[in-house]
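Q: What structure does this chain adopt?
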Amino acid sequence: MTSTPNITGLTNKNLFLVDFQEPYTEKVLRDESTPNIRSVVFSPKGNYLAYRTDRKVEILKCTDWSVTATIDGNVKDMFFSPLDTYFISWEMFFTTKDNPQGKPNLRVFNSQTGENIGSFIQKNQIGWQPKWSSDEKLFAIHANNRILIYEDAKLDRYTHNIQADKLQAYSISPSPAPAYYFSIFTLGKSGQPSFWRIFKFPQFDISNAIVSRSSFQADKATFNWNRRGTNVFTMTQTDVDKTGGSYYGKQALSYGDIKGNGGNMTFSKEGPIHSIAWNPGNWNEWVAVYGHAPAKATLFNAKCDPLYEFGTGAWNAIYFPPEGNIVLLGGFGNIATGHISVWDLRGCKKLGECSAPDTTFLQWDPRGETFITATTYPRLTVGNGYKIWHYTGALMHKRECVEKENLLSIIWQPGTYPKSELSKTVPKGIEVAAPKATAYRPPAARNKPSTFTMHEHEKPHKPGQNAEAAPSKQAIKQKEKREARKARKAEEKATDKGDTPPTTPSSRPPFVSTGDPEKDKKIKNINKKLNDIDKLKQQKAAGKQLELNQLAKIENEAALLQELEQLKL
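A:
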């Protein structure tokens, strides 16, 4: 493997490699002599590259780009197993008069030799992909209301199965051996809730479910495990929002872990959940973009406590590089500006920003130093091309398609690569960033200063550090303790020097009953107010900015003392 990552691109004219250094030349791997290349995919470890045409699939070895295996057939979708050992393909299912049962259309091959080690019938393209455990020991496939589980790549006979009525979706955790966990989602019958559950392999009886969560408003579900496979988020959604709050159905986010904890996630801003993503470099952190536009972005820990508020912006997508030390927030699709901002998660500061309108694809390079944005066909038929950006937002390279040329896809080669000088230095951009799009203003308001101000809760901040936001009870307690410690130290210091200690609540004369219950009640009430005043005076002496009503209380001290003397007569 080379010291720098490769970029592989596919147009309607050729399959090419980008030399990742100036002047970023392109090397053709396959030209028009190999017609109708539909798509390309790298294996997760970066050892193989596969491309498909309408007649065959060729698997290339990335060290020298030689062909290791050729698979015949009109493959429509494909992917590699987690350790690159196996290649899985899917074709359209059909029957004939000679074969009314149809032939297997999902096939599993050895990536290096092309040997077919297993074949299955999977009629629907939606959800056709089987699942592997991270060590490739377990292979699971969804068949009607069952999940069939095979072990050690012996695909002729399954060893375990999960069976449930209306089983809709499932997932295998990426946890290391020997602990494997499965999450499943079952659709509720009429008048009954839907459920998602977590099981530990091979204990799949409902009574053995580690987590079991129900919902009356869930037609489909997707699972999102963290890197260590200890925590999972389940996004449930209905096809139709009966409340009328959204055209796209109603969403809900719930969570669970392998210790049996579970619950529902609620966000501080109403609206859709645009995206969630676990930090691949820190299994205990995740980011969510949520709420009506402008959307809000927040960094949470695994217990769903907010760690940092990125504020609000034109965002609907989250992209982490492999190390997870930074995060990219982007706005694409129905957000025309294509705004991108990159944040340092350790220092909680913005590293850079840029704008990439009409972006249909974004991916970090394996080193986390640069990322690529592209406008691809057929999602967009004009303006096809790609750009390479430094993480600070500097544009390093730009390539536009010529006439009658369409960019179908572009992708980084996965792998482990050494860091370069790009991690420390900011390259000079090849062009000045385009001016930011401004909001529409009516003619009468143009050429006048804007009256818009961003609310404090919309600005980036750590929870509890926003001056405009009400502090939590815990923050108030901690602040009072700090102020009390300061007051004690000041008193001890003054005593050591022989000075008169500052006035404290305890320096007030003790309460002495007058014998009249009504007077005693009033005296106690005044003493309480005077103690509060003493605390405010200490805070003022410590440099705290008091509010107007607090200053008014201090000014009322003389009147309270006079009233107290009258009551003691």
